[in-house]
Design goal:
Elements (H helix, E strand, L loop, with lengths): L1 E12 L10 E12 L3 E5 L6 H8 L7 E6 L7 H4 L2 E4 L11 H11 L6 H10 L15 H13 L5 E5 L7 H16 L3 E5 L3 H7 L2 E6 L2 E7 H5 E10 L5 H6 L3 E2 L5 E5 L3 H13 L4 E8 L2 H12 L6
Parallel strand pairs: 3-7, 3-8, 5-6, 6-7
Antiparallel strand pairs: 1-2, 1-4, 8-9, 10-12, 10-13, 11-12
Helix pairs in contact: 3-4, 4-5
Length: 310
């Protein structure tokens, strides 16, 4: 079963009676499927349509056309909603509540019986042990973000929709959150992330979609989007005769002794390596060259345009 399925999904804001005009199209025939158990990251510029799509998944926004299914059901189906854990980008928490009070209220809304142990377990998982009796109003942004994640995790939902999950969290906290998300995947949950922190998205997700103008420009495994079958990164031990390597067709890479070369097949790659050795270079590292998501995003937007919805 698919965790998320969108077919020809469109959403237009405004433009109807009594207003005149075509309205603003936030989603323009979006097609996307996310398999169960995947970790999917949706990236794009502000206004690409990411927020509208998330609202469609949650049943908050009804599409103008097309179909969206969550865990095989309509997003407005209570059975589907019960299996979704959501962390919003703009997280508003009751300042007068303690973490236990807040999570207990969320558990009641989710219909979780006898949730005291589950509440305290999730508090511990997100690193807030010892803060149970403290009022949320005194929490830092990172602590509030951790608490919001705990709320999303309550009850073990099968789909986690996380909007900027590590925003405001320090580096060690981000590592802890990545560990928690890995645990959730291990038990079979699907992750759907929307984040501007592309490096974090690369670390968490195995599939990526690039959204622009309400359309999906690219989608697939992160290795396929960021990697290259014919480009290699080679590292040579110092000292390196850079001029000799450049003359052979190598290009300087990032870092000391790092060079990049395009080779259509293993034979061509070995010819480059043999030439480097004849020039006195000593190879100590070889790998496929991998671009980061920033490069992939910039390339996709350059080809597909960057205007969009909400």
């Amino acid at each position: 079963m698919l965790a998320i399925e969108a077919r020809g999904l469109r959403k237009t804001y405004g433009g109807g009676w009594p207003r005149r005009g075509a309205g603003r199209e936030a989603l323009a025939g979006l097609d996307l499927v996310v398999p169960e158990g995947a970790a999917f990251g949706l990236i794009g510029l502000n206004g690409a349509g990411k927020t509208t799509f998330i609202k469609s998944l949650l049943g908050v926004v009804r599409p103008s056309a097309g179909v969206v299914r969550v865990l095989g059901k309509d997003p407005e189906d209570p059975a589907a909603r019960a299996q979704i854990g959501y962390l919003p980008e703009r997280l508003f928490l009751p300042h007068a509540f303690t973490p236990v009070q807040f999570l207990s209220s969320v558990a009641r809304l989710k219909g979780l019986p006898r949730a005291d142990d589950e509440v305290r377990r999730q508090i511990g998982r997100v690193g807030l042990s010892g803060e149970e009796a403290r009022r949320i109003g005194g929490f830092s942004k990172g602590m509030r973000q951790r608490l919001g994640l705990a709320a999303a995790l309550l009850g073990g939902p099968m789909l986690l929709v996380l909007d900027e999950p590590t925003d405001g969290v320090d580096p060690l906290g981000r590592a802890e959150i990545r560990r928690i998300l890995a645990e959730e995947r291990a038990r079979g949950a699907t992750l759907f992330l929307n984040s501007h922190l592309l490096a974090e998205t690369e670390r968490v997700c195995d599939r990526i979609g690039i959204l622009s103008g309400g359309r999906l420009l690219r989608e697939g495994p992160i290795e396929a989007l960021c990697g290259s079958e014919t480009r290699y990164r080679l590292t040579f031990a110092p000292p390196v005769d850079a001029a000799a390597l450049l003359a052979l067709g190598f290009r300087a890479g990032e870092g000391e002794g790092v060079f990049v070369v395009d080779a259509p097949d293993p034979s061509a790659l070995n010819e480059y390596i043999d030439g480097a050795r004849r020039a006195g270079a000593r190879l100590v590292g070889l790998a496929h060259d991998v671009r980061d998501l920033e490069e992939v995003l910039a390339e996709a937007l350059g080809q597909g345009g960057g205007q969009g919805g909400a």
